[in-house]
Amino acid sequence: MLFRKEIEPACAYCSFGRRGEDDGVICLRRGVVSPWDKCGRFRYDPLLRVPEAEPQPVTDVDPEDFRL
User: Fold this and answer.
1) E strands within the chain?
2) Confidence of residue 13 (pLDDT cuts 50, 70, 90)
3) Residue 4 is assigned to a structural domain of this protein
């Protein structure tokens, strides 16, 4: 869930971090870090978090599968 209470800290969605080049995060406190790095100053920002993609529906269905 996007707004759950028990969020695991990661610099990718911390309010002190900004997306950098090459999948890195530019932290205002620690400089360039990995997106999954964490520190004690973590502050969750739900607007920075990218939710997982939803599964795509199956499109190769035969109409005979739905015939009674």
Assistant:
1) 17-19, 25-27, 31-33
2) confident
3) no
Residue 2: pLDDT band with limits 50, 70, 90? low
Structure-derived torsion over alpha carbons of residues 23, 24, 25, 28, reported in degrees to the nearest 10: -150
User: Is pTM, for the whole model, over 0.90?
Assistant: no
| C-alpha distances out from residue 40 to 5, 27, 44, 49, 60, Å | 17, 13, 12, 19, 49
In a domain, 27, yes or no: yes
Number of domains within the chain: 1
Q: With contact defined as beta carbons under 8 Å apart, do 33 and 27 qualify? A: yes
pLDDT at 1 over 60: no
Please give the residue range of the domain that contains residue 22. Answer: 14-46
In a domain, 24, yes or no: yes
The answer to whether position 20 is within a domain reads yes
